[in-house]
Amino acid sequence: MTLSRRDFVIGAGCGVAFASMSSLPAYASLVEDSIAAFTGGADVVSGDIVLDAPEIAENGNTVPIEVSAPGAASIMLLATGNPVPAVATFNFGPLSGSRSGNTRIRLIKTQEVMAIAKMEDGSFRSAQATVKVTIGGCGG
Amino acid sequence: MAKDAKPRVKVPKLAAAGETITLKTMISHKMESGQRKDSDGNKIPRSIINRFTCDFNGQNVINVTLEPAISTNPYLQFDAVVPEAGEFKFTWYDDDGSVYETSKKIAIG
């Protein structure tokens, strides 16, 4: 069988379409993977954790984020729309004064920022906040 | 990179025994994310500080894992309990293996 030019163009077009379709949910699955790696598949309940993020960030290169969860052993921060969703994980030691942390993060676009706390009793709590980004970080 | 990284920390000089104090830390570091490209279109390799720890008299206060999504000149603020007079030790771990350290004394008063 000989492959005509027309057949080739159609075939190649489908290939490209398929590749772009399959890459769409990649970020979402990365987020789920990060959550699963942190929680080990345990249920995550919302509440008991406060995530303080600006509603609008003029510059995605430095977005101040504050998170606190009384009774947490560690807190993971995720930027669900970034190429790499993981942002930071705070592990609190015996001399930690309050289970809170404050840092500055990069956001490539408008997206939801998520915090998941692992409590000392082994349960998990989460909080989310949407941050509008007008200039993206990550050099995008 | 080691020569550029300058750690800065803010610790009160005095605290009451058992008091909770706020510590602020920052280190100058470009935190290259590994996502950016140079003018020729080549990826600039990742070079970040991937871990930060704070200890007081050998006891851990906080241990933070940092990812490329942390801004240039990583800033961290957190609270610590001061049970006695002593020294806070702050340590940053670079991707290239360098370790940056600084410490601050605190008195009880």
The helix-and-strand class of chain B reads mainly beta
Shape of chain B: elongated
The unreliable regions of chain A are 14-24
Counting structural domains of chain B, the number is 1
Number of helices of chain B: 0
Number of DSSP strand runs of chain B: 8
The largest β sheet of chain A comes out as: 6 strands, mixed
Instruction: Say what the CATH topology of chain A is.
Output: Immunoglobulin-like
- SSE order of chain A, as H and E? HHEEEEEEEEE
Average pLDDT confidence of chain B is 92
Radius of gyration of chain B: 16 Å
List low-pLDDT spans of chain B. Answer: none
Q: Report the β-strand fraction of chain A as a percent range.
A: 35-45%
| Name of the top-level CATH class of chain B | Mainly Beta
Query: What is the makeup of the main sheet of chain B?
Result: 5 strands, mixed
**H/E order of the elements of chain B?**
EEEEEEEE
**CATH homologous superfamily classification of chain B:** Immunoglobulins
Tally of individual helices of chain A: 2
Structure description:
The complex is a heterodimer of chains A (140) and B (109). Chain A is of the alpha+beta class. In chain A, 36% of the residues are buried. Chain A has one domain (26-133): Immunoglobulin-like (Sandwich). The model of chain A is unreliable at 14-24 (pLDDT under 50). In chain A, strands 1, 3, 5, 6, 8 and 9 form a six-stranded mixed sheet that branches. In chain A, strands 2-4-7 form a three-stranded antiparallel sheet, with no helix packed on it. Chain A starts with a helix and ends in a 7-residue tail after the last strand. Chain A has helices spanning 5-23, 26-39; strands at residues 44-46, 50-52, 56-57, 63-68, 72-79, 86-92, 100-105, 111-119, 124-133. Chain B has 109 residues and is mainly β. Chain B has strands at residues 7-10, 14-15, 19-27, 49-56, 59-66, 75-82, 86-94, 99-108. The termini of chain B are far apart. Chain A binds chain B through residues 61-63, 79, 82-84, 86-98, 100-107, 137-140, and chain B through 20-22, 33, 35-37, 55-56, 59-72, 74-81, 83.
